[in-house]
Design goal:
The complex is a heterodimer of chains A (409) and B (102). Chain A has 409 residues and is an alpha/beta fold. Chain A has helices spanning 21-28, 67-80, 98-107, 123-131, 146-153, 158-171, 190-199, 214-218, 220-223, 227-243, 305-311, 313-317, 334-337, 342-349, 365-377, and strands at residues 18-19, 36-40, 84-88, 111-116, 136-141, 176-182, 204-209, 249-253, 275-276, 282-283, 384-385, 392-393. Helices cover 37% and strands 20% of the residues of chain B. Classes of the chains: A alpha/beta (409), B alpha+beta (102). Chain B: Monomer. Interacts with PqqE.
Chain lengths: 409, 102
């Protein structure tokens, strides 16, 4: 998943008669309700990707919001003016009520996207989702062939299944996005992944370099690409973007470890994005619960979602520029990147209120990123697989037998 | 799926594909196009033209209606409308009604 779910990254053309709504809102500097909201309806997932964006402390199945509670959330979001919903997870189709939830989203006027690993979908289930009003399917791919892809996913036969579901998606006339999360151990497959997206008749490809918090931070030594790989990746993406214009849109998320400026994470804390966790916490970012010391309000509390968005302490703590320390405070880029990523600042410096070390102006930048560079050049390739048990280290046997410890229901 | 690479002409009968929804956003009081992971705000003219795109009406019919409504030269309207629809089609927000085989 990219951190740009809520925005439109394509700038409007000069004569296309379209203006991007988001650009108006940013200029207005208001904290209007986001256009799109990410619902992580479960953390259960048959895959065990070592870079999973879910927190290391996963919500158990027993804590998940009920069907009735999610329906209430959907109704409330529609009433607030949210226009789009991203059903995500974990694996959203691990919930038996996914069709019912998509139908309810349609009933209250929300546009639905499904962000899925695809491995649990049958053709009938996908058709039922389409009938319920699902408008777009995004499928994650871990490589372009089973040997690499199934090992990263920690699940046999996952890749073949994904290809099958991608074909059904297009047969059902739904637009398809291929999401490819890239790292040292699969970047060599990028040209083939691009071709795979073309062959699958995808509308859009997200080439997303791993962002290193949570599970991915634990696996950094096994995932961090080399600088040479990143340079080659940028070249490949630019060439493909030009060559495939009009056929396949390619969005590219660069790894901020090798950048000089941090990313404008989530468009700025509490400015245009929130997500709701399986247990109902309203969060400024899907990794926000990794920041200890922040209290996040739940939809199960007696506060409305609108109140939580506008007034809760967690959302206001890092909103705008008032919280910033130096070097951010007097930096000319403070409203360009909003100090980068709070979760990354916390994970790498122990204080979410520090400048994101991805920024070259951070006093910790040099030390942290030299270490990452050393890791990229070493050959520690063993994964710590994501699961409810706190992770399982890859073994030689586990490459052949990955059926255990996958579900945490 | 209907072709995403349509060429708009006066004989085209365009319509919005299933995944692009034109809707009035009551909260923000603007028309929006909802598309995969995107929200766009078409301007007034685009909204007016898009509302005419029902898969039955031809572009020529739309141009006639607009030329009459705005008392503007048909030729100029045609150029603008075709260019705008082509642009929307290139972005994937417009498709062509399938030819009836009946």
């Amino acid at each position: 998943m990219s951190d740009t779910l809520a925005d439109n990254k394509t700038p409007p053309g000069p004569s296309d008669g379209l203006a991007v709504l988001e650009s108006r809102r940013s200029a207005a500097e208001t904290y209007g309700i986001p256009l799109a909201v990410l619902l992580e309806i479960t953390h259960r997932c048959p895959l065990q990707c070592p870079y999973c964006s879910n927190p290391v402390e996963l919500d158990r199945g027993s804590t998940e919001l009920t069907t009735g509670e999610w329906k209430k959330v959907l109704s409330e979001l529609a009433e607030l003016g949210v226009l789009q919903i991203h059903f995500s997870g974990g694996e959203p189709t691990a919930r038996k009520d996914i069709v019912e939830l998509v139908q309810h989203a349609s009933d209250v006027g929300l546009y639905s996207n499904l962000i899925t690993s695809a491995v649990l979908l049958t053709k009938d289930k996908l058709a039922a989702l389409a009938d319920a009003g699902l408008s777009h399917v995004q499928i994650s791919f871990q490589g372009n062939e089973p040997a690499v892809a199934d090992r990263v996913a920690g699940l046999k036969d996952a890749h073949r299944k994904k290809l099958e579901v991608a074909k059904w998606t297009r047969e059902l006339e739904m637009p398809l996005t291929v999401n490819a999360v890239m790292h040292r151990q699969n970047l060599h497959q990028l040209p083939d992944i691009i071709q795979m997206a073309v062959d699958l008749d995808a509308d859009r490809l997200e080439v997303a370099n791993v962002q290193y918090y949570g599970w991915a931070l634990k696996n950094r030594a096994a995932l961090m690409p080399t600088i040479a790989q990143i340079e080659e990746t940028s070249r490949i993406v630019e060439e493909a973007q030009a060559r495939l214009k009009g056929t396949l849109a390619i969005d590219y998320v660069v790894p901020d470890y090798y950048a000089l400026r941090p990313k404008k994470c989530m468009g700025g804390w509490g400015r245009q994005f929130f997500n709701i966790s399986p247990a109902g916490k309203v969060l400024p970012c899907h990794a926000a619960e990794s920041i200890t010391g922040l209290e996040f309000e739940s939809v199960r509390s007696n506060h409305s979602i609108a109140w939580i968005w506008q007034n809760s302490e967690a959302f206001n703590r890092y909103r705008g520029t008032g919280w910033m320390p130096e070097p951010c405070k007097s930096c000319e880029f403070r409203e360009v990147d909003y100090g980068g990523c709070r979760c990354q600042a916390f994970a790498l410096t122990g204080d979410a209120g520090n400048t994101d070390p991805a920024c070259a102006l951070s006093p910790r930048h040099e030390e942290i990123f030299k270490q990452a560079e050393r890791e990229s050049a070493a050959s520690q390739n063993r994964f710590l697989y994501r699961n409810f048990a706190g992770g399982t280290l890859e073994t030689e046997e586990s490459r052949d037998n990955r059926q255990d410890n996958r579900n945490g229901a | 799926m209907a072709s995403r690479n349509i060429s708009v002409s006066e004989t085209s009968r365009p319509k919005l594909p299933r995944h692009a929804k034109l809707k009035f956003d009551e909260t923000r009081q603007v028309w929006v196009i909802l598309a995969p992971e995107r929200v766009l705000a078409p301007d007034e003219i685009a909204v007016e033209v898009l509302q005419l795109c029902d898969g039955v009406r031809s572009v020529a019919d739309m141009v006639d209606m607009l030329a009459e409504k705005y008392a503007a030269p048909r030729e100029a309207i045609a150029i603008d409308v075709v260019a705008m629809l082509q642009d929307l089609a290139d972005k994937g927000f417009l498709t062509e009604a399938r030819e009836s085989t009946a």
